[in-house]
Design brief:
single chain; Rossmann fold; 7 strands
Length: 304
């Protein structure tokens, strides 16, 4: 089954600073590209836990004693590691967003390019669909989603158009939604549609809340000196990652202990995000908006 090419492949593996007998997590297993790279660098006592809630990803599970596939959202990272008897890991990698495989499957409803039902669920076996969001959310809620998650400037106009259209006919398919979007598009068509669909996908999968919970858990299960490597694709994700690496919380609020010492959970490995090369973008256009941030867990020393 073809998945997207692993983005920032060499850079992410190098940033993990892989130890031969270490324990690692690929929190977004997908087609297993990054996981295979980690496995190649491990010795016989190393281990990789690959998380993915998409049932399609389970078909790519690797037959290797050093690998364990976990059919779950990375939101439950800590619980599943505990289930497998793992208290701490040496590195965690996550390549966020939707894969090319998911975008190219018409029936998943992630892309406006196909005639298909409006679904957009990463785990299509449960949860609310994009159609349910469009038909059931209030005008104010829709406006907020498109403004916050898609940075749609005329989000109010779009929300009103959706509410008016669903009074006439329930919005079930891409064709229905595109007909509504036609009069709302401002600027470059494909960019506008991509932003609208991104906003819907984020809401359907509760991506910002899930990412926040994952990042906090990741910082808790990493060993001192362990690396957290995150590849993000839009500013909201990147801001969350940057906040957690700098302050240990998703709000970016600096916390101090009783003695006034600033809580710094990570040593920032690269002050600026690591970006794909022009050569990689030519080969893999999906990499264009990728930003990778890397943090190394700092050991908390006891006070005398």
């Amino acid at each position: 089954m073809a998945y997207h090419l692993p983005v920032l492949y060499q850079e992410s593996l190098d940033s993990l600073n892989i130890e031969k007998n270490g324990i690692y997590v690929d929190a977004t297993f997908g087609g297993g590209g990054h996981t295979k790279g980690i496995l190649e660098r491990l010795g016989e006592n190393g281990k990789v836990y690959g998380f993915d809630q998409d049932p399609d990803a389970a078909k790519n599970a690797i037959e290797d004693s050093k690998f364990q596939f976990v059919k779950s959202n990375f939101q439950f990272l800590k619980n599943y590691l505990k289930l497998y008897g793992v208290k701490a890991v040496d590195g965690i990698l996550a390549d966020l967003g939707v894969s090319s495989h998911q975008l190219d499957q018409a029936e998943r409803g992630f892309s406006y390019r196909f005639e298909a039902d409006l679904d957009m669920r990463m785990n299509y076996q449960g949860g609310k669909s994009a159609a349910e969001v469009l038909n059931e959310y209030s005008q104010d809620d829709l406006q907020e989603i498109f403004s916050r998650y898609g940075e749609i400037r005329n989000s109010k106009t779009l929300a009103i158009a959706i509410v008016n259209a669903r009074l006439v006919k329930r919005i079930e398919r891409n064709e229905d939604f595109l007909a509504i979007l036609g009069d709302c598009i401002r600027g470059q068509r494909n960019r506008y549609l991509a932003q609208v669909y991104q906003a819907l996908r984020i809401e359907v999968n509760d991506e910002m809340k899930v990412l926040s919970e994952f990042l906090i858990q990741a910082s808790e299960v990493l060993k001192p000196g362990g690396r957290l490597v995150i590849i993000s694709y839009h500013s909201l994700e990147d801001r969350l990652v940057k906040n957690v690496l700098k302050t240990g919380n998703d709000k970016g609020v600096v916390e101090k202990d009783f003695y006034g010492n600033i809580h710094r959970p990570f040593k920032i490995i690269s002050k600026k995000p690591i970006l794909p090369t022009d050569e990689e973008i030519k080969i893999n256009p999906r990499a264009r908006s990728a930003k990778m941030r890397v943090g190394e867990k700092i050991e908390v020393k006891g006070k005398s």
